Amino acid sequence: MNIKQTLTGFYLFVAVLMVAPITSLAAADLEVNTPAISTLKNSMQTRHGQLAGHYGSGAVGLTRDGLIAVRDANAVPLAQRQGVNSLVSAENSDRNALYKEIATANGHPEWEAEVRSTFAQRWVQKAQGGWWYQDASGGWKQK
Amino acid sequence: MRISNITWAGLLLALTLQACVTINIYFPAAAAEKAADKIIDEVWQLKEGQPANTDPAAPAK
Questions:
Q1: Which stretches in chain A have pLDDT values below 70?
Q2: B17: contact with A, CB 8 A cutoff
Q3: How far is CA A10 from CA A6, A96, A111, in A?
Q4: Do B52 and A55 touch, CB atoms closer than 8 A?
Q5: What CA–CA distance (Å, rounded) separates A138 from A133?
Q6: Which of the two residues, B50 and A131, has the higher pLDDT score?
Q7: Pick from A14, A102, A118: which is nearest to B9 by CB?
Q8: Contact A38, A94 (CB under 8 A)
Q9: Where are the domains of chain B?
Q10: What is the ipTM for the molecules in this complex?
Q11: Residue B20 is nearest to which of A21, A98, A111, comparing CB atoms?
Q12: Smallest Cβ distance to A14: which of B16, B35, B37?
């Protein structure tokens, strides 16, 4: 009798535990609503107004590691070149911080590289036609 | 017989607990893609004029 009750209890407990992973899978969203991430997003959104034209002209392209790079400096008037370099380096420091912050905010700093490669693919996927991006081997391609 | 049942239950318990831990260790690729899309939409201001939650299947909070 006692053993039977114990066993039933055991099985119920096990059954509950088997459901638990399913519910945690369903709730598996990444945390991206931290103050640090919002600050980075706002800063990148503001900067995008200045960068969009350079993506369109081919001066700046999306790299395979989730950053951006000056691809064709000749597409930028001489007077603006220094400005473009600063824009690119500011954008890259925000992007690096963003990938790191997403991994850290989710308790897995070691996910940074995977967050970065996910973003690298999605930036290209969402880029407008005519923009340039690096393929897997690092060569520039036009979307 | 009964003892062996308890042993099985224990084994199952151990495996289940392991599964719980494992799920949190693997990189959640689909969730990451979703998060990336959301952030990119905001940064590049895609889908302008639409609220963030346009999925009719999403349950209201």
A1: 1, 3, 7, 10-27
A2: yes
A3: 6, 48, 36
A4: no
A5: 9
A6: A131
A7: A14
A8: no
A9: 2-43
A10: 0.82
A11: A21
A12: B16
